[in-house]
Amino acid sequence: MPTRRRAVVTLVVLGLLAAASVLASLLAGSLAIPPGEVFAALLGGGGGAADIVLQLRLPRALAGFACGGLLALAGALMQVLLRNPLADPYVLGISGGAGVGAMFALLLGLPLIAVDGLAFAGAFAAMLLVFGLAHGDGSWTQTRLLLTGVIVAAGCGALVALMLSIAEEHRLRGMLFWLMGDLGQGTPWWPAMLALVIALVVALPFARELNLLARGLLQAQALGVAVDRLRYAIYLLASLATAISVTTAGSIGFVGLVVPHLIRLAIGNDQRLLLPASALAGGALLVLADTLARTVIAPQQLPVGVLTALIGVPLFLFLLSRQPR
Amino acid sequence: MTAPLLEARGLRVDIGGTTLVDALDLAVGAGERVAILGRNGAGKSTLLTTLAGLRRPAAGSLLLGGDDAAALPPRQAALRRAWLGQFQNDPFGSTVLETALTGRHPHLGRWDWESPRDAELARGALAAVGLAGLEARPVHTLSGGERQRLAIAALLTQASPLYLLDEPLSHLDLNHQMAVLGLFAGAARDCGAGVVMVLHDPALAHRFCDRALLLDGDGRAEAGAVDALLTAERLSRLYGHPLRQIDDGGHRHFVPE
């Protein structure tokens, strides 16, 4: 069990790591900008480089950090809610619903605001649908919730495939990038960042109760947790966090599944530390992945979802193999 | 006069459309030990979760420490009764000490972290069940019996006045069976704890409890002092298998024919 002091130290280290990742993303790009000019731009100095740093790279890095944090936090919450280590933010169909909305907008060639709006509406609709169906008979068990979510996700996947197959050739690339996750869409960063802060503030007071929830519903209830209320709240929180992230950057895979496990392997499963640490690490991982995505074969860009998996898989396997069993 | 730790009034327990227990009146006061006996599927565990306030009764009411359990906030209920389930699991893994500390949850405020005093209580509880020195071990490396004792240690750290135990002896070897029953008998005698436990061995029920509650599984339940109720004749009917009673030094033993 981490002490409060160890928790603070861990979070400070992860916070520095996150800041470093954002800084790296400001420095790197198809146009190399020296650190001096980056700092000058951040401190309000003008110059040609300032526009690139402040208008392009900084918003994109902040959006990446917020989305990574939201996904990792939602993943950690879903894993506790379903008491299943394989759960991720997308397992209950939130991204599927968003995908249907976004593909529909892209298929018709609607403007960005409509893509975002329909993506969020789709995610929200999927959330309500899964909640309503899973809650139907009042049992609201993990298995029922998981099955409902997986089936709704499958249905959404079919609709997305349908729209991809009838889409015009020149729209396909944009649609595929959205599906793989892409931070280059120009959606503003601040709603996601605001959502991340709110989600953390809401979730952290309940972290010790989440520790108990992971051990079983009756067990948690016997120890004094208002289990039903807590589960509704987590479902809502994790779903909204996922919906906002997916609206901002498409369905970036892997972060939500793997970051909570990475943190768990490194520092244990106490949710009081796991939740904020996952948010910081998820944000840092996504910023780094996005920086690579836009520099590896610059000026060409890769979808960031590809990079998160390429970075995350070896890192995860390394930590797993090092773990004494 | 203080209210009993637990009081059931006209309690009915249903599961899957059948009534397991009907019109049960039961009060457990400080220092009392009650054994629940019955066949598999007679509703022992379901009744115990209902008595813990974790399951809504089909009819009747349940009072914990004099207050209606249905209206009691979960945390208040956790301070009035501790419940040991049949199954413990933890899909994400944790250490022995972390698990023992879970019992402290109802005693801590929302922002509190476990204090050194809580850790001390948990170490004491681990020592009481013979798990001293294993604090840092991951739970999944423990044997079934060790896990059961760990669950009992977590229960002890909860420090509530009433223990509801569902098969507390499962997976335990003979030595630890006696130790665990002795532990709860001591808690009842010295601290005035109430203990209600589901047991499968009528001899141990006779030896370690004051009263027995026999569940026939069809709604009928019979409660009474162990001396009067735990006889070969009554238990033969309960289990549907003839039993012979052997008295030895004040203890009763029941041998299947």
List keywords for this structure.
heterodimer; A: 325 residues; mainly alpha; 14 helices; B: 257 residues; alpha/beta; 6-stranded mixed sheet; 4-stranded antiparallel sheet; 9 helices; 33% helix; 27% strand; globular
Account of the 3D structure:
The complex is a heterodimer of chains A (325) and B (257). With 325 residues, chain A is mainly α. Chain A is 76% helix and 0% strand. Chain A has 14 helices and no strands. In chain A, α3 (48-81) runs parallel beside α8, α4 runs parallel beside α6 (142-166) and α12 runs parallel beside α14. The mean pLDDT of chain A is 89. Chain B has 257 residues and is α/β, with parallel strands linked by helices. Helix content of chain B is 33%, strand content 27%. In chain B, strands 6-7-8-3-9-10 form a six-stranded mixed sheet, sandwiched between helices. Chain B has a four-stranded antiparallel sheet with strand order 2-1-4-5, covered by helices on one side. A two-stranded antiparallel sheet of chain B has the order 11-12. In chain B, α4 packs across α5. Chain B is globular and about 50 Å long. The model of chain B has no long low-confidence stretch (mean pLDDT 94). At the A-B interface, α9 and α10 of A face α2 and α3 of B.
Strand order of the largest sheet of chain B: 6-7-8-3-9-10
H/E series of chain A: HHHHHHHHHHHHHH
Provide mean pLDDT of chain A, rounded.
89
**What is the β-strand count of chain A?**
0
User: Largest chain-chain contact?
Assistant: A-B, 29 and 35 residues
Can you give the mean pLDDT of chain B?
Answer: 94
Measure the end-to-end span of chain B.
47 Å
What fraction of residues of chain A sit in β-strands?
A: under 5%
Q: Give a short account of the largest sheet of chain A.
A: none
Overall geometric form of chain B: globular
Which structural class do you get from the secondary structure elements of chain A? mainly alpha
Provide a short characterization of the protein structure.
The complex is a heterodimer of chains A (325) and B (257). Chain A is built from 14 helices and no strands.
